[in-house]
Write a sequence for this structure.
């Protein structure tokens, strides 16, 4: 149990057909590329092992497999590839014909599951910005049904498969990646309880713990997440890290000020409150304005939270 958390990086694999959007997702989520710039990304032709920035809390790798590599064959060294991998993200272009993508996914699940039954398969039904709302749900249902038929035929109905509707043009891809990453953090239940305690003692409406570099949220309190609160809080991260990198230099290194702390007041008597939690994580909360007048209470409880967090991950605060 004394092993350093860095030694056991959870690994995420990113796979899918050529042009399905893998490189774009990776660039937008982890390298702050703007969605429009992805139009000019060159096609991926080799396996790219992408070690997510070291300053990021989430220590995992995205393996970008070029679309023509058969991910169920020996070419991908399945034993080592799937053996220690926590999640496999499979990107399907929602605009494309799905039949081939689904059959390749099914073959990959067969291979990967045999080697590593713990692996979770996360299907990103991607580029849904191009579909009207009702058609998104319909597309998901179709893909889900076809895949479950194929898995039933392969006697693999027990493989764990989750579906997400994603687009790089809104927050959905960050939200989906958050869910993927959260499953790979063994400390998640503890983090959630810590956030619940914080929320109750300070009368916070919603709290997210964000990885600053990727804007993935690592945990939140147990009240339901609505997309709008998540977007507000994610935008807050952008606003603060832009300012912080202007003043602090070193881009992509998270916040550089010793302890970033920022409040933005909204029109409806609520505010968004950001506190740096450690070098790579920030707490972003939605609170009513009245709560912010109780600085002592906030300071005290936030201090407790930071200490517990440091203890949990044994990293210097
Ligand atoms: P890869 O071969 O799987 O790495 O695919 P790329 O990342 O190169 O993406 C292929 C094309 O899809 C690019 O022109 C991207 O701009 C486009 N693309 C990626 N994600 C999205 C998305 O969410 N929505 C839309 N409309 N286009 C996307």
């Amino acid at each position: 149990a004394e092993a350093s958390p860095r030694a056991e990086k959870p690994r995420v694999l990113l796979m899918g057909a050529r042009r399905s959007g893998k490189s774009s997702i990776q660039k937008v989520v982890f390298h702050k590329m703007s969605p429009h710039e992805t139009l000019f990304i060159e096609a991926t032709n080799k396996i790219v092992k992408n070690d997510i920035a070291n300053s990021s809390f989430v220590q995992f790798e995205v393996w970008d497999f070029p679309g023509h590599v058969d991910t169920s064959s020996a070419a991908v060294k399945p034993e080592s590839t799937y053996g220690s991998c926590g999640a496999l993200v499979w990107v399907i272009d929602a605009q494309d014909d799905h039949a081939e993508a689904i059959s390749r996914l099914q073959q990959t699940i067969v291979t990967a599951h045999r080697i590593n039954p713990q692996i979770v398969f996360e299907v990103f039904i991607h580029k849904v910005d191009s579909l009207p709302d009702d058609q998104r749900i319909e597309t998901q249902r179709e893909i889900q049904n076809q895949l479950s038929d194929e898995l039933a035929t392969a006697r693999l109905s027990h493989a764990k498969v989750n579906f997400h509707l994603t687009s790089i043009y809104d927050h959905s891809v960050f939200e989906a990646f958050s869910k993927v990453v959260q499953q790979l953090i063994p400390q998640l239940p503890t983090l959630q309880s810590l956030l619940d305690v914080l929320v109750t003692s300070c009368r916070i409406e919603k709290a997210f713990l964000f990885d600053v570099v990727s804007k993935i949220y690592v945990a939140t309190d147990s009240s339901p997440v609505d997309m709008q609160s998540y977007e507000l809080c994610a935008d807050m991260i952008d606003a603060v890290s832009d300012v912080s990198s202007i003043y602090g230099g070193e881009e992509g290194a998270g916040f550089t000020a010793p302890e970033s702390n920022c409040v933005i007041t909204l029109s409806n008597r609520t505010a968004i409150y950001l506190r740096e939690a450690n070098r790579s994580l920030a707490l972003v909360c939605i609170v009513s304005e009245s709560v912010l007048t109780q600085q002592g209470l906030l300071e005290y409880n936030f201090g407790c939270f930071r200490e517990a967090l440091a203890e949990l991950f044994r990293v210097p605060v």
